[in-house]
Amino acid sequence: MGSIEEKRAALYQKLKQLRSLSHSSAVHKTSIIVDAAKYIEELKEKVERLHEDAASSREHTSLPMQVTVETLDKGFRINVFSEKDCPGLLVSILEAFEELGLDLRDANVSCSDKFHLEAIGEVVKRAVLKAIKNWTDNDNED
């Protein structure tokens, strides 16, 4: 009889631990298991998004640009720099800003032998990276 009681106690402890790990407030075994399954699915989705973000970051790091974003009190400062001249990149970036409905408060641009853009406003790094990717794709087609 002691063996059955030990098994029950072990099962109870495992269910208690599962309930805690899955942030469940359920009382019944079945509900705890269902909550845990839902929690596992949420974790799988988070892992998928992280993998997608990592893959996206790897794509963008292969671009011939350096992009930095700093948070300001009311918006962001974004810097885009390339060692080479990038005809059409400024237009591509400004189109991406417009597409996202972002307003620039101030911008400094140099497009001589190198490309440098410093923009201050409500800017999102992803928009700039998308613009650079679009520009790179278009540049490779030419």
Automatic annotation (TrEMBL):
Organism superkingdom: Eukaryota
Record bears the keyword Nucleus: yes
Major place of residence: nucleus
Domain Plant bHLH transcription factor ACT-like intervals: 66-133
InterPro entries membership: bHLH-TF_ACT-like_plant (IPR054502), TF_AMS/ICE1/BHLH6-like (IPR051358)
UniProt keyword list: Coiled coil, Nucleus
Record localization: Nucleus
Pfam families found in the cross-reference section: bHLH-TF_ACT-like_plant
Coiled coil, from the record: 33-60
Signal peptide: none
Protein's UniProt keywords contain Translocase: no
MF term (GO), any: sequence-specific DNA binding
Entry GO CC: nucleus
Protein name, UniProt field: Myc-type, basic helix-loop-helix (BHLH) domain-containing protein
The organism of origin for this protein: Cynara cardunculus var. scolymus (Globe artichoke)
